[in-house]
Amino acid sequence: MIEAMSMQDLTDKNSAEYKALRDKDRQIQKELMDVSDQIRARHPKLVEHQDAAGMAIFLISIGGMILNAVLWLEGVMPGWMVIVLSAFWTSLLHELEHDLIHYMYFRKQPFWHHLMMAGVYLARPLTQNPWIRRYLHLHHHKVSGTETDLEERGITNGERWDWKRFLMVGDNMLAFYLRAGKYFVVPKKLLKQGKIDRTDLKNLRIIGALSFNPIGYICYTIWHGFVLFHIANGIAWMVGANISWPEWLLAQEGWVTAVVVTLIAPNVLRTFCLHFISSNMHYYGDNAPGIIHQQCQVMNKWYLIPLQLFCFNFGSTHAIHHFVVRDPFYIRHLSEKESHEVLRRHGIRFNDMGTFKRANRLNERTA
After folding, report:
1. Contact assessment for residue 329 and residue 99, using Cβ atoms and an 8 Å cutoff
2. What is the pLDDT of residues 58-87, one digit of tens each?
3. How far apart are CA 160 and CA 356, in angstroms?
4. What do you get for the CA distance between the two ends of the chain, in Å?
5. With contact defined as beta carbons under 8 Å apart, do 304 and 315 qualify?
6. Could you please report the per-residue DSSP string of 69-114?
């Protein structure tokens, strides 16, 4: 148990305690790989035609979003339904992007691989550039739960729960501006503490600069303007007043509403659901570096279903991925029941809701 280990044990990879933790990881991985092999044997076509399966899901999801937009523009489908259904399609596209980051589709056919990467990006413009995210995500697997896990830290993992974290969970732009000072202070602090070297510091700064997403910031600016415009009108209506907006602003209302309903709002909904689940199912700060079974839990309570719908059951299946990286998301979902039995048998936490009050620490703080 991590509670019985000293900080030296946590970082000393030659200690007997650390080796025992690694052995546990290997055993869990072996048993989960056996489950994966059984699923693959039951569904050989999904393995043999993995590229085709990925492309089919990609085209169906993009087609679903386009169809929703057309039906809304024709007055057939209400806006709220477009937002909900397109959020579901973007959750599938997120799973595809994650698989693409791990080179699971068209590894030997770069044109189709990068075409899919561009497609999942343009359909989810609030997200980070996937070619940049690839570096961050592969780094996340190596250092999950530590201060240099930029991917999870970026979506508020390890932050105290308050109004600020609530806003940052669903808004990448606010997540940057509400913590802008940390981006200048924290890397130098890590360097001073010896947790990174000067090469790491340079890489962190380069990745930070490249992570700037102008497309996403334009979309967030439109979103913020749309929300504030309607809030102001709502307040004015309640007090019996009327706001005299300039004509040039009112002239933008049509196209702005169309972009928000068909593209931006579905992605805001999906982003909030994914980041809420992901940032709270991962542990931070007091887990042994590199020890997979201390990196995350399984979150599958029934009352999380509304959130899980828009991140494709991420909370229930992502812990499996930390142990078995090779499987595309649909294999992981098919193996869910048997994989959960393995995880339970080895003491992986399920629905540890205390993570919210512990700021995602694995254990209660002792000081």
Report:
1. yes
2. 999 999 999 999 999 999 999 999 999 999
3. 8
4. 19
5. yes
6. HHHHHTTSS-HHHHHHHHHHHHHHHHHHHHHHHTT-S-TT-HHHHH
pLDDT at 10: 59
Query: What span, in angstroms and rounded, lies between the C-alpha atoms of 162 and 156?
Result: 11
Q: Compute the distance between CA of residue 171 and CA of residue 126 in angstroms, rounded to an integer.
A: 9
According to DSSP, residue 128 is labeled P
Residue showing tokens 């209660």: 364
Number of helices (H), then strands (E), in the chain: 20, 0
Of 233, 210, 223, nearest to 256 by C-alpha is 223
Give the H or E element holding residue 37.
Answer: helix 16-42
All residue ranges of the chain with pLDDT < 50 are 1-8, 367
CA dihedral of 98, 100, 104, 110, whole degrees rounded to 10:
-170
Q: At 190, list the tokens.
A: 């890590």
User: 0.90 cut: is pTM over it?
Assistant: yes
| CA–CA gap between residue 330 and residue 335 (Å, rounded) | 9
Strands of 130-206, DSSP E: none
- Give the three-class secondary structure for 296: strand
Per 3-state DSSP, the chain is made up of helix, strand and coil in percentages (nearest 5) of 70, 0, 30
Residue type (1 letter), 94 = H
Q: What is the pLDDT of residue 45?
A: 96
